[in-house]
Amino acid sequence: MTSQQQLADAFVALAGGTADGPDVPGTLAVLVARSPTLLGIRAAGVVFAPHERAEVQVTGSDPEVSRLEHDASDLREGPGHDCHRGSLPPAQAALDSRPARQRWPHYAPRALKLGYARVAALPLRSPSRITGALILLSGRRSPIPPDVLALGQSMADFTAVTLERADEADRSRALTAQLELALTSRVVIEQAKGILATRLSLTMDDAFALLRGHARSHQRPVHDVACEIIEGRADPELIDPT
Predict the structure, then answer these.
(1) Of 236, 229, 237, 178, whose CA–CA distance to 208 is shortest?
(2) Are residues 124 and 162 in the same domain?
């Protein structure tokens, strides 16, 4: 497979997922699994949190990198955390340099011990916000070439946009379900009002006041009481107050 085919295959995999849309852990796993080969680096990690209060999801291209980035996230340290939270580190840094050791006193020595010499963090940028970071780890101290960083940034951005659109679709489906439930509940209540109004010779407003008052006095949802009226199981106190 040519490098162009590998790249195209990677973007197709990033855009894929389940029938309901991209799977977040799966998409992040694809990103870190494909990055080393496509970018010519030794390993990759990713941190992702679509919202300020969302739990940070972390994964790596191998178990050691996953643990490294998990611990860095817990300590709120490391290039991935800095990039994600907007405190941007240098575009890339030598892990044995004095600035890196000072900035990341836990992360830098541990990454060095694992055999990594240089790191770069690229933001996962959606149109509205930064949702995480792609961390590139190289075994060479020499700088990661600009074209490699540019490609890595494209992969990071594509991932961020894909996951944001999936999140928007999920929220849209949830809102639709809530609206459908509210509409169904409203129809049931209107039917119950009509039954009460006819049976007790009330106006629709008075019928609703009676329905709501009964529900409140018995600490029950109006919808549940309305269902019982429609099904002929209503409290006799309600349908025959005399």
Answers:
(1) 229
(2) yes
Type of residue found at 60: G
Instruction: Select the more confidently predicted residue: 213 or 78.
Output: 78
Residues 84 and 49: their CA atoms lie apart, in Å, by 9
- For the chain, what is the domain count? 2
Angle between helices 24-39 and 146-200 (to 10 degrees): 170
- Please say whether the dihedral angle defined by the alpha carbons of residues 56, 62, 63 and 65, taken in this order, is positive or negative: negative
**pLDDT one-digit tens code per residue, 154-164:** 999 989 888 88
Residue-number span of the structural domain to which 218 is assigned: 173-239
Beta carbons of 161 and 127 less than 8 angstroms apart: yes
pTM: 0.70
Cα Rg of the chain (Å, integer):
28
Together in a domain, 121 and 202: no
User: Are 161 and 233 members of one domain?
Assistant: no
Burial of 27 by CB count in 10 Å (0-12 exposed, 13-18 middle, 19+ buried)?
buried
Q: What residue type is 10 in one-letter code?
A: A
143 and 166, same domain (yes or no): yes
Q: Indicate the SS3 state at residue 43.
A: strand
Are 142 and 202 in a shared domain?
no
CATH code assigned at 217: 1.10.10.10
